[in-house]
Batch of 4 targets.
Target 1
Amino acid sequence: VPVDEIFVGLEPVALAQHPADPNRVFVVDRLSDALVVVDLERGVVVATVQVGDEPQGLALAAGKVFVTTH
Protein backbone atom coordinates (compact mmCIF):
# COMPACT_ATOMS: atom_id res chain seq x y z
CA VAL A 1 0.00 0.00 0.00
CA PRO A 2 1.59 3.31 -1.06
CA VAL A 3 2.05 5.83 1.71
CA ASP A 4 2.54 8.79 -0.61
CA GLU A 5 3.32 9.58 -4.23
CA ILE A 6 5.62 12.19 -5.75
CA PHE A 7 5.38 12.69 -9.51
CA VAL A 8 8.87 12.58 -11.04
CA GLY A 9 8.05 12.04 -14.71
CA LEU A 10 6.36 9.68 -17.11
CA GLU A 11 9.00 6.93 -17.15
CA PRO A 12 11.33 6.86 -14.14
CA VAL A 13 13.93 4.15 -14.70
CA ALA A 14 16.54 4.51 -11.93
CA LEU A 15 16.76 5.82 -8.39
CA ALA A 16 19.61 6.49 -5.95
CA GLN A 17 19.61 7.81 -2.41
CA HIS A 18 22.04 10.55 -1.39
CA PRO A 19 24.66 8.89 0.85
CA ALA A 20 24.81 11.75 3.37
CA ASP A 21 21.13 12.79 3.27
CA PRO A 22 18.59 9.93 3.39
CA ASN A 23 15.77 12.37 2.61
CA ARG A 24 17.28 13.25 -0.78
CA VAL A 25 16.88 10.92 -3.76
CA PHE A 26 17.82 11.24 -7.41
CA VAL A 27 15.54 9.78 -10.10
CA VAL A 28 16.28 9.39 -13.80
CA ASP A 29 13.25 9.91 -16.05
CA ARG A 30 13.84 8.50 -19.50
CA LEU A 31 10.98 10.18 -21.38
CA SER A 32 11.73 13.70 -20.16
CA ASP A 33 15.53 13.23 -20.52
CA ALA A 34 15.98 14.46 -16.97
CA LEU A 35 17.49 13.87 -13.57
CA VAL A 36 14.93 14.73 -10.88
CA VAL A 37 15.99 15.59 -7.33
CA VAL A 38 13.40 14.78 -4.65
CA ASP A 39 13.19 15.89 -1.03
CA LEU A 40 11.42 13.00 0.69
CA GLU A 41 10.94 14.84 3.97
CA ARG A 42 8.94 17.61 2.27
CA GLY A 43 7.53 15.33 -0.43
CA VAL A 44 8.49 17.60 -3.33
CA VAL A 45 10.70 17.78 -6.40
CA VAL A 46 13.41 20.33 -5.65
CA ALA A 47 15.20 20.30 -9.01
CA THR A 48 14.97 18.95 -12.54
CA VAL A 49 18.11 18.84 -14.68
CA GLN A 50 18.10 18.02 -18.40
CA VAL A 51 20.79 15.38 -18.98
CA GLY A 52 20.66 14.19 -22.58
CA ASP A 53 18.79 11.68 -24.68
CA GLU A 54 17.05 8.81 -22.88
CA PRO A 55 18.97 8.53 -19.61
CA GLN A 56 19.19 4.92 -18.43
CA GLY A 57 20.90 4.91 -15.04
CA LEU A 58 22.83 6.84 -12.46
CA ALA A 59 25.59 6.51 -9.89
CA LEU A 60 26.78 8.63 -6.98
CA ALA A 61 30.52 8.95 -6.37
CA ALA A 62 32.88 11.54 -4.94
CA GLY A 63 30.00 13.91 -4.18
CA LYS A 64 28.76 13.91 -7.76
CA VAL A 65 25.87 12.35 -9.67
CA PHE A 66 26.74 10.56 -12.91
CA VAL A 67 23.99 9.75 -15.43
CA THR A 68 24.24 7.27 -18.31
CA THR A 69 22.37 8.11 -21.51
CA HIS A 70 21.33 6.16 -24.57
Note: The beta strands are 12-17, 24-29, 34-39, 44-50, 55-61, 64-69.
Target 2
Amino acid sequence: AFVDNDIVLILTIFLFAFSNGLATSMLMTLAPEDVEDYEREDTGFFCTFALLFGITCGLFLALPFQNFGK
Protein backbone atom coordinates (compact mmCIF):
# COMPACT_ATOMS: atom_id res chain seq x y z
CA ALA A 1 0.00 0.00 0.00
CA PHE A 2 1.04 3.57 -0.54
CA VAL A 3 0.23 4.61 3.02
CA ASP A 4 0.71 2.20 5.91
CA ASN A 5 -1.09 4.31 8.50
CA ASP A 6 -4.78 3.43 8.75
CA ILE A 7 -5.72 6.74 10.37
CA VAL A 8 -4.47 8.66 7.32
CA LEU A 9 -6.52 6.45 4.99
CA ILE A 10 -9.65 6.75 7.13
CA LEU A 11 -9.33 10.54 7.34
CA THR A 12 -8.76 10.81 3.59
CA ILE A 13 -11.82 8.70 2.83
CA PHE A 14 -13.87 10.72 5.33
CA LEU A 15 -12.81 14.04 3.77
CA PHE A 16 -13.59 12.85 0.25
CA ALA A 17 -16.95 11.42 1.31
CA PHE A 18 -17.94 14.54 3.26
CA SER A 19 -16.93 17.00 0.55
CA ASN A 20 -18.53 14.92 -2.21
CA GLY A 21 -21.76 14.49 -0.25
CA LEU A 22 -21.91 18.18 0.63
CA ALA A 23 -21.25 19.34 -2.92
CA THR A 24 -23.72 16.87 -4.42
CA SER A 25 -26.46 17.74 -1.94
CA MET A 26 -26.01 21.46 -2.45
CA LEU A 27 -25.96 21.20 -6.23
CA MET A 28 -28.98 18.89 -6.37
CA THR A 29 -30.90 21.29 -4.11
CA LEU A 30 -29.86 24.59 -5.69
CA ALA A 31 -29.83 23.68 -9.39
CA PRO A 32 -33.63 23.56 -9.88
CA GLU A 33 -33.98 26.94 -8.14
CA ASP A 34 -31.78 28.69 -10.71
CA VAL A 35 -33.81 27.79 -13.80
CA GLU A 36 -37.18 28.87 -15.13
CA ASP A 37 -40.27 27.11 -13.80
CA TYR A 38 -40.87 25.12 -16.98
CA GLU A 39 -37.26 23.78 -16.92
CA ARG A 40 -37.23 22.51 -13.32
CA GLU A 41 -38.41 19.00 -14.10
CA ASP A 42 -35.80 18.57 -16.83
CA THR A 43 -33.11 20.01 -14.54
CA GLY A 44 -34.00 17.54 -11.79
CA PHE A 45 -33.91 14.68 -14.27
CA PHE A 46 -30.52 15.78 -15.64
CA CYS A 47 -29.04 16.15 -12.13
CA THR A 48 -30.23 12.69 -11.14
CA PHE A 49 -28.99 11.18 -14.41
CA ALA A 50 -25.56 12.82 -14.04
CA LEU A 51 -25.23 11.56 -10.46
CA LEU A 52 -26.18 7.99 -11.34
CA PHE A 53 -24.02 8.02 -14.48
CA GLY A 54 -21.03 9.17 -12.42
CA ILE A 55 -21.57 6.46 -9.82
CA THR A 56 -21.88 3.82 -12.55
CA CYS A 57 -18.74 5.00 -14.35
CA GLY A 58 -16.81 5.04 -11.08
CA LEU A 59 -17.92 1.51 -10.33
CA PHE A 60 -16.89 0.13 -13.69
CA LEU A 61 -13.61 2.04 -13.74
CA ALA A 62 -12.75 0.81 -10.25
CA LEU A 63 -13.21 -2.86 -11.05
CA PRO A 64 -9.97 -3.27 -13.07
CA PHE A 65 -8.01 -1.56 -10.29
CA GLN A 66 -9.32 -3.55 -7.31
CA ASN A 67 -6.04 -5.51 -6.97
CA PHE A 68 -3.77 -2.62 -7.94
CA GLY A 69 -2.09 -2.11 -4.55
CA LYS A 70 -1.55 -5.77 -3.74
Note: The CA atoms of residues 22 and 53 lie 18 Å apart.
Target 3
Amino acid sequence: GVEYNTFKRYKATIENQIKPILGNCRLTDVKLNMLQKIMNDLSLKYSTSTLNKFKITLNQLYKFAIKLNM
Protein backbone atom coordinates (compact mmCIF):
# COMPACT_ATOMS: atom_id res chain seq x y z
CA GLY A 1 0.00 0.00 0.00
CA VAL A 2 0.84 3.66 -0.06
CA GLU A 3 2.04 5.51 3.04
CA TYR A 4 -0.49 7.94 4.53
CA ASN A 5 1.59 11.08 3.81
CA THR A 6 2.19 9.93 0.23
CA PHE A 7 -1.55 9.40 -0.20
CA LYS A 8 -2.25 12.90 1.16
CA ARG A 9 0.27 14.40 -1.27
CA TYR A 10 -1.25 12.51 -4.23
CA LYS A 11 -4.74 13.62 -3.20
CA ALA A 12 -3.68 17.26 -2.84
CA THR A 13 -1.98 17.21 -6.25
CA ILE A 14 -5.07 15.68 -7.86
CA GLU A 15 -7.53 18.06 -6.19
CA ASN A 16 -5.48 21.26 -6.56
CA GLN A 17 -3.68 20.91 -9.88
CA ILE A 18 -4.85 17.97 -11.98
CA LYS A 19 -8.63 17.97 -11.44
CA PRO A 20 -9.07 21.68 -12.26
CA ILE A 21 -7.36 21.05 -15.60
CA LEU A 22 -8.98 17.74 -16.54
CA GLY A 23 -12.34 18.53 -14.97
CA ASN A 24 -14.72 15.61 -15.23
CA CYS A 25 -12.76 14.02 -18.07
CA ARG A 26 -12.49 10.24 -17.61
CA LEU A 27 -8.99 8.75 -17.53
CA THR A 28 -9.92 6.65 -20.56
CA ASP A 29 -10.68 9.83 -22.52
CA VAL A 30 -7.34 11.50 -21.77
CA LYS A 31 -4.97 11.21 -24.72
CA LEU A 32 -1.20 11.56 -24.83
CA ASN A 33 -1.31 14.84 -26.75
CA MET A 34 -3.70 16.24 -24.12
CA LEU A 35 -1.30 15.29 -21.32
CA GLN A 36 1.63 16.80 -23.21
CA LYS A 37 -0.23 20.09 -23.64
CA ILE A 38 -1.10 20.12 -19.95
CA MET A 39 2.53 19.49 -18.99
CA ASN A 40 3.71 22.20 -21.39
CA ASP A 41 1.23 24.68 -19.92
CA LEU A 42 2.15 23.75 -16.37
CA SER A 43 5.86 24.11 -17.15
CA LEU A 44 5.25 27.84 -17.55
CA LYS A 45 4.02 28.08 -13.95
CA TYR A 46 5.75 25.32 -12.00
CA SER A 47 9.26 24.08 -11.28
CA THR A 48 10.69 20.87 -12.71
CA SER A 49 10.32 19.29 -9.27
CA THR A 50 6.61 20.08 -9.17
CA LEU A 51 6.14 18.82 -12.73
CA ASN A 52 7.77 15.55 -11.73
CA LYS A 53 5.27 15.25 -8.87
CA PHE A 54 2.44 15.73 -11.39
CA LYS A 55 3.88 13.02 -13.61
CA ILE A 56 4.31 10.61 -10.70
CA THR A 57 0.76 11.25 -9.51
CA LEU A 58 -0.72 10.75 -12.98
CA ASN A 59 1.32 7.58 -13.40
CA GLN A 60 -0.04 6.24 -10.11
CA LEU A 61 -3.59 7.13 -11.15
CA TYR A 62 -3.26 5.13 -14.35
CA LYS A 63 -1.63 2.18 -12.58
CA PHE A 64 -4.48 2.10 -10.09
CA ALA A 65 -7.07 2.36 -12.87
CA ILE A 66 -5.43 -0.57 -14.67
CA LYS A 67 -5.59 -2.64 -11.46
CA LEU A 68 -9.31 -1.87 -11.27
CA ASN A 69 -9.74 -2.80 -14.96
CA MET A 70 -11.04 0.65 -15.85
Note: DSSP finds three helices and no strands in the chain.
Target 4
Amino acid sequence: DAAFHRAIRTPVTFVPAPTLGDEDVAPLLPGADAIVSKRFTPAMAAAADTLRLILTPGAGTNQIDFAAVPA
Protein backbone atom coordinates (compact mmCIF):
# COMPACT_ATOMS: atom_id res chain seq x y z
CA ASP A 1 0.00 0.00 0.00
CA ALA A 2 2.79 2.46 0.81
CA ALA A 3 4.44 2.04 -2.61
CA PHE A 4 1.08 2.57 -4.32
CA HIS A 5 0.48 5.81 -2.43
CA ARG A 6 4.00 7.07 -3.23
CA ALA A 7 3.46 6.38 -6.95
CA ILE A 8 0.17 8.29 -7.19
CA ARG A 9 0.57 12.05 -7.54
CA THR A 10 -3.13 12.93 -7.70
CA PRO A 11 -5.01 12.80 -4.40
CA VAL A 12 -6.83 9.47 -4.17
CA THR A 13 -8.63 7.30 -1.72
CA PHE A 14 -7.47 3.71 -2.08
CA VAL A 15 -9.98 1.19 -0.69
CA PRO A 16 -8.95 -2.46 -1.02
CA ALA A 17 -11.70 -5.07 -1.06
CA PRO A 18 -11.11 -8.20 1.04
CA THR A 19 -11.88 -10.42 -1.97
CA LEU A 20 -12.66 -10.03 -5.68
CA GLY A 21 -16.24 -11.21 -5.10
CA ASP A 22 -19.16 -9.03 -6.12
CA GLU A 23 -20.37 -9.01 -2.52
CA ASP A 24 -17.12 -7.32 -1.41
CA VAL A 25 -16.37 -5.08 -4.39
CA ALA A 26 -19.81 -3.75 -5.44
CA PRO A 27 -20.54 -1.93 -2.13
CA LEU A 28 -17.28 0.02 -2.56
CA LEU A 29 -18.09 1.30 -6.06
CA PRO A 30 -20.82 3.96 -5.61
CA GLY A 31 -19.11 7.31 -6.11
CA ALA A 32 -15.85 5.72 -7.34
CA ASP A 33 -14.06 7.18 -10.36
CA ALA A 34 -11.91 4.12 -11.02
CA ILE A 35 -11.51 0.45 -10.22
CA VAL A 36 -8.29 -1.55 -10.35
CA SER A 37 -9.29 -5.19 -10.58
CA LYS A 38 -8.70 -8.26 -12.69
CA ARG A 39 -12.47 -8.70 -13.09
CA PHE A 40 -15.56 -6.58 -13.74
CA THR A 41 -19.09 -7.98 -13.58
CA PRO A 42 -22.68 -6.80 -14.16
CA ALA A 43 -23.14 -6.47 -10.37
CA MET A 44 -20.13 -4.19 -10.17
CA ALA A 45 -21.39 -2.13 -13.13
CA ALA A 46 -24.79 -1.70 -11.46
CA ALA A 47 -23.11 -0.31 -8.34
CA ALA A 48 -20.58 1.90 -10.17
CA ASP A 49 -22.66 5.04 -10.69
CA THR A 50 -19.75 7.41 -11.46
CA LEU A 51 -17.08 5.03 -12.78
CA ARG A 52 -14.79 6.48 -15.48
CA LEU A 53 -11.90 3.99 -15.54
CA ILE A 54 -11.55 0.22 -15.34
CA LEU A 55 -7.89 -0.75 -14.97
CA THR A 56 -7.01 -4.41 -15.28
CA PRO A 57 -3.43 -5.15 -14.26
CA GLY A 58 -1.68 -7.96 -16.08
CA ALA A 59 -2.48 -9.60 -19.38
CA GLY A 60 -5.81 -10.69 -20.77
CA THR A 61 -9.38 -9.55 -20.40
CA ASN A 62 -11.18 -12.87 -19.93
CA GLN A 63 -12.42 -11.78 -16.46
CA ILE A 64 -14.04 -8.59 -17.83
CA ASP A 65 -17.70 -8.81 -18.80
CA PHE A 66 -17.64 -6.27 -21.63
CA ALA A 67 -21.44 -6.30 -21.87
CA ALA A 68 -21.46 -4.86 -18.33
CA VAL A 69 -19.08 -1.97 -19.11
CA PRO A 70 -21.05 1.28 -19.42
CA ALA A 71 -20.80 3.05 -22.78
Note: The two ends are 31 Å apart (CA to CA).
